[in-house]
Amino acid sequence: MSEPVSSVAAGREFLAIPGPTNVPDAVLQAMHRPMLDIYTGPMVALTDSLLRDLKRIFATEGRCYIYAANGHGAWEAALTNVLSRGDKVLVLESGRFAIGWGEAAKMLGAEVEILPGDFRRAVQPDQVEKRLRADTKGEIKAILVAQIDTASGVINDIKAIGEAIRAAGHDALFCVDTVASLGCVPFEMDKWGVDVSMSGSQKGLMTPPGLGFAAAGPRAREAHKKANMRTPYWDWTFRDGPVHYQKYCGTPPEPLLFGLRAAFDLIFSEGQDNVFARHRALAEATRRAVAVWSEGQTFDFNVSEASERCDTVTPVITRGGESAQALVDYCQNKCGVVLGRALGKTEGRGFRIAHMGHVNAPMVLGTLSAVEIGMKALKLPHGSGGGAAAIDYLAQTVPA
Ligand SMILES: *Cc1c(COP(=O)(O)O)cnc(C)c1O
Fold first, then answer.
1. Ligand 1, residues 15, 147, 177: which to mutate, most atoms within 8 A of Cβ?
2. Is 53 inside any structural domain?
3. Does residue 129 line the site of ligand 1, with CB under 6 A?
4. Are 192 and 295 in a shared domain?
5. Residue 6 placed within a domain
6. Mutation probe of ligand 1 site: the residue of 79, 150, 207, 343 with most atoms within 8 A of C-beta
7. Is the model's pLDDT at 361 over the cut of 90?
8. Which of 214, 248, 268 is the last residue of a domain?
9. Which residue has the higher pLDDT, 39 or 328?
10. Residue 252 and residue 282 share a domain
11. Whose CA is nearest to atom 8 of ligand 1?
């Protein structure tokens, strides 16, 4: 045994939380520059390029909007532009985030119904179809769902939910939160029949917090014409106007926009398919480690069905509901890795490992190793060799 060391956390603290995520140096550098005129020249060209590339990222021919806002702001943008007070909204529960979006809708004056789900399961499309078939008067005007729920760690099958809505012959607007999925896993707004999508800058898009996005398909634009929840800042009609500053309803958040440009350049130069494959591989490596740890009977995946586990964040829970705070603290204070805390129904009884955005093998393996060091140091029962299982998986999946 060598001398005990109080901490090995010096060096860059590593954020393994599901947002904000790690911002690439190229994005940080792009933001550090003088401000530009907001009416002409390079700023206008920058906006055009970002709106064009947002369409590419959302995979839509619809119109995209950029807000100086976080995800909660983009939620409000999506709702206020297409709904009227008293409209009924169906929230598809699968964790915490669609519920939060529904709470915003309620405060804005919508009538909100929750299609109950399970904190450990994805939305079941057949249940959506059943509920919509029962809505014979067509009272439901919009359906809200998160593609990835960052609290539970499920990925919802947006394509299948879209098919369920059409199978029921229902014409409610299909609204999807892609804050924790866009730029990390495939999303096909138009092909999957999504009417409104929203997102934010600080997760898969690798840009600091502060930009919110909305994308509107043709049916959303129709609904917009008669929506009475509209307010000046979020309003699409004003933002469609001819003067550049209208695109932001005021002064553009210029540094963030330059950062987003650099982030998009990184995504397109890596290639979106490669970005998705990288997320899949690093997520699976994480899952291999968690599967081994869970053999110790203390820890488990939050998401019970393997096929419903998402590729951007892996929430781990304690089987007996014990706190995992000592482990989270150990990782941060002793190893310099910040894990996500458990949210929603698992609050206080687990942790989350994010593998979202600007991540590579050493970042993910380093995080897994720190967790494993913590489990050993704290003598938490766990299957040993989780990190090794992740390494074995990556060695097979990333051939020489
Ligand atoms: C983070 C997150 C949000 C909220 O975004 P903020 O920027 O924190 O307001 C909404 N939905 C999902 C799925 C998220 O992961």
1. 177
2. yes
3. no
4. no
5. no
6. 150
7. yes
8. 268
9. 328
10. no
11. 71
